[in-house]
Amino acid sequence: MKKISIIIIILLSLFSFKRVIYKRHKTYIYDAFYIKANGDTLTKEIIILKPKGRPWLFQFSQTAYKINYFPQTDSLFDWINPMNKLQEFREKFKLKKEKKGEIWNDLWSKKNSSGAVENENEVWSHPFRSNQYNITEIAPFPEIYKDKLHQDSTWESSLTLGWDNWKGTINYKYTTLGRKDYIYKAVNLDSCWEINASGKHSNPNLGTNWNRYLYHPEFGFVLLNYTFYNGVKIVFKLKEVIDRRNKI
Fold first, then answer.
1. Fewer CB within 10 A of the terminal residue: the chain, N end or C end?
2. How far apart are CA 114 and CA 133, in angstroms?
3. Which CATH architecture has domain 2-243?
4. Mean pLDDT of 211-237
């Protein structure tokens, strides 16, 4: 019983901060664009993020949220997954279906859960990383430190991955560029903070990857603009926020 009480106290202390962005009554709707190295848009999809208002089961210090993906399966039919093991799995599954004379519609995640940090000092989130977006794992994660929200401030961090051909250590460098307004469809926000971040992978084949994003103190990371070592670009644009009490 004593151990259970300690765990409850720890959880309560972690969630005593009054969250503004990741509140369970909010729903964030994004347009997502995957742009190939030749400049052609492979997919334009919708992603929906819904905070759960409780700790994430995989990391209690983070607040959980649910993500719904709406993949364009036809456009992605011949897409090659940059994670070797996932691509091998797709090919084996396709072959198995073909041998049975069945139609192969591919396997795409429609939903998953993830976590974010929001407290008095920082805001940090896992990226959207299912399906064709798994390459965001090797780019800088979206984050801000509130004491760094002023012109030309910088900070650094690192992350070690142990997954397939993403394996290695990534060294991140972040720079606050200043204020910038954000206008896209139903969302009109003044004075967001613009951050430019680079992530240099220890595997030279994965090079340096970039994430230039906008942060708003009430709605979080409203624009994520990625550029990757292989020329691919991925952009996530917040287009609507649904609040059970009001809308923006």
1. N
2. 14
3. Beta Barrel (2.40)
4. 98
| Pair 140, 172: CB distance under 8 Å | yes
Is residue 14 within 8 Å of residue 55, measured between CB atoms? yes
Q: What token pair was written down for 68?
A: 């719904």
Q: Are strands 233-243 and 154-161 parallel, antiparallel or unpaired?
A: unpaired
φ and ψ at residue 199, rounded to 5 degrees: -135, 110
The 8-class DSSP code of residue 136 comes to G
Rounded distance, CA 160 to CA 119, Å?
24
Using the structure block, give the residue that is written with the tokens 């940059």: 82
DSSP H or E segment with residue 28: strand 26-35
* End-to-end Cα distance, the chain: 46
pLDDT, tens only, 75-124: 998 899 999 999 999 999 989 988 988 888 888 999 999 999 999 999 99
Please state the domain extents for the chain. Answer: 2-243
pLDDT of residue 3: 54
3-state secondary structure of 38: coil
Contact between residue 50 and residue 65 where contact means Cβ atoms under 8 Å apart: yes
User: CB atoms < 10 A from the CB of 246, how many?
Assistant: 7
